[in-house]
Amino acid sequence: MKTFKDVANMYEEALLPLYPIGEIKQLFLMSYSFVTEKSHTHYMLNSTNEITETVLHRFLSILEELKTGRPIQHILGVADFYGLRVSVNEHTLIPRPETEELVEWIVKEHQNSEQLSILDIGTGSGCIALALKKHLPRAQIDAIDLQGEAITVARANAANLNLSVNFIQADVLEWDSFMQRNQQYDVVVSNPPYITPTEQKDMQNNVLLYEPHTALFVEEQAPLLFYDVIAEMGKKHLLPNGSLYFEINQYLSCETCDLLLKKGYEDVTLRQDLNQVDRMIRARFKII
């Protein structure tokens, strides 16, 4: 009979033409956690345990789909994000670790707030909004997305996690047509589309072929379109001392900061992610 270690070796042999060795190890461990409902540490302690044919079949079924280049999160139907497990599919962007750092920044800066209103723009699976609600339970959170299919996924995630977020299908580019004058927020957060067509050549096929392009890409001639629109909206719908939080294109960090400063935002702060890449911006409006 096969052991878990044997299966790990099968993953490595089959996937080496497609992925770096470190990523293959992560793919196997994600498969292990999904199949066994045990932690990565559990694998380290039990790698030589023999497995049943049924369990082996489940591993091999996942492996066959991985060999096509399909993202493992789509194969499993779930992704882990900031301590939550959320459902994802082809209509939602797969949550990235860098976005967890953006959530961490917001949580740390607002964890002592008695009252807090938050708007998440381009919510996708709802991962940002739901993680914020989990860790800032007093917050009132609205979240919008253009795609109705994404809103359906986000609402299902909220129900599964027993978290209350108001999900709305809307196009932020037309914010002045659906936002009420009295809609005011302490925090507006967004991980909007920011990848230009020029950058596509450096991207992996499992992103290009399987993730929603509307959540990823912007036109070459208007790479900061969403930042411009959201910043303009924030001028009317942020409360005094309110903050914008953005995930950004690392190659346009200075341009994004300049855009916010020219629109009258203050205390514009750029942060790098754990890979030392420019990745996040926080800007305040109407500081009093």
Tell me what the structure shows.
The chain has 288 residues and is an alpha/beta fold. It has 2 domains: 4-68; 78-285, Rossmann fold, CATH 3.40.50. 42% of the residues lie in helices and 19% in strands. It has 12 helices and 9 strands. The strands form 2 sheets. It has a 7-stranded mixed β-sheet, sandwiched between helices. The radius of gyration is 21 Å and the shape is elongated.
Summarize this structure as a short list of keywords or feature phrases.
alpha/beta, 9 strands, elongated, Rossmann fold, 2 domains, 7-stranded mixed β-sheet, 288 residues, two-stranded antiparallel sheet
- Quickly count the domains: 2
As residue ranges, the low-confidence spans are none
- Overall 3D form: elongated
CATH architecture of the largest domain: 3-Layer(aba) Sandwich
Q: How do the strands of the widest beta sheet line up side by side?
A: 5-4-3-6-7-9-8
Helix content: 40-55%
What is the CA-based Rg, rounded? Answer: 21 Å
Judged by helices, strands and strand pairing, the structural class is alpha/beta
What would a concise description of this structure say?
The chain has about 290 residues and is of the alpha/beta class.
List the helices and strands and how they pair.
Blueprint: H1 4-15, H2 21-36, H3 40-46, H4 53-66, H5 72-76, E1 78-81, E2 84-87, H6 97-110, E3 117-121, H7 127-135, E4 140-145, H8 148-161, E5 166-169, H9 175-178, E6 185-190, H10 205-208, H11 225-237, E7 238-247, H12 253-262, E8 266-272, E9 278-285
Parallel strand pairs: 3-4, 3-6, 4-5, 6-7
Antiparallel strand pairs: 1-2, 7-9, 8-9
